[in-house]
Amino acid sequence: MRLFGTKLLLVIVLVLPASGQAPPVIHRLDGTILSAAQASEIATAELAINHVTGAQLAILNRGHVVWTHAFGLRNVEKQLPMTDDTNLWAASITKSLFATCVMQLVEQHRIDLDKPIAQMLLRPLNEYESYGDSASELAKDPRWQHVTVRMLLDHTSGLANLLVLEPDQKLHLHFEPGTRFAYSGDGLNILQLAIEERLHEPLDVSMQRDIFSPLRMKRTGMVWRPEFEENVALRYDASGKLIGATHREKPRGASSMATTIHDLSLFTEAFLANKLLRQPTRAQMLKPQIVIHAAHQFPTLVAEPGTEGDKVGLAYGLGWGLLTQTRYGPAFFKEGHGDGAENYIICFTRSGTCMIVLTNSDNGELAFRPLLEKLIGDNVTPWEWEGYTREDILRNEEHAQSK
Questions:
Q1: Residue 107: half-sphere exposure toward Cβ, Cα within 13 Å
Q2: What's the pLDDT tens digit per position in 295-337?
Q3: Cα–Cα distance, 208 to 91 (Å, whole number)
Q4: Can you name the CATH fold of 23-402?
């Protein structure tokens, strides 16, 4: 009798969850549904076809995670699998979390969005050891006195993306500040300098205190931490060759964050639920600051006009790219691109449908379009402007290899 009773109990334990809970499903933007198993099958196939070394994916519906997927390897040499808690380099997705931290300070009236950044710094930019002669021309340009915090967050300052792209290795304003969009990582790093002076602490300390710790993002940091070592993704190029690990010793508001799909999902849920910012502040962050008519985001200073962005209301807010006129309602997005780190996040605010993709591969972007289209039905992202068409990606790879 005792044996029979044990068997009966086992049957009850195994059957009740299956009959008491509906299997998880993904609601796509067009109202169609995918099962978790179907989503995993699609993701695995697309990532494998495009020779992505490793990836982490998440989908949110109504602002909550409904599916995650880890694919491939975090370490090819040791054949270590990618997991949901593997640390990857977020690259420029860092900018959006840094911008959120800035907007917390705006909300607290500790920073004014429309104050010139030159007035926030304690001394001229060229007098800082980290800039010196590289900022000498900028310091002499009277337009520099009109570049505001807002312009740095919405990428209308006139600065190039990176100093290394300037032929003379000096910072310049390439157009009248506030008049057009040109993505600039250097602009965010200058803003970081001003904020660190204002707070009297390095950026990694403030972001840990104000964002990562409250959300229990335990495997996220602006600088490397030893506890990440146990589960970290190495980075690989398009041929699968090892590039290396990412150990950032200094925080960079434009690019230094390491994170996981689990932690970045926690941030996304909290951002959508107004747990990090009050609703009016978040609305201000997602309000279009500049409309974008350019055919491509990169190279940043090429202003060739295009029509793709106009179809979806392409614009930029404060730290986020925006799609203001899609059939699925407005969306905000951010890319992350570095050697062996290609990442993307997009959220449609009306339905709370989001998708996050993190990879440790230079082939990651090849999979973005099929993943987004097939998994959440995103057929509105401006793929050419992003440079996410296969032709653009392969052309960029060939250009990089020829240098």
A1: 18
A2: 999 999 998 999 999 999 999 999 999 999 999 999 999 999 9
A3: 17
A4: Beta-lactamase (3.40.710)
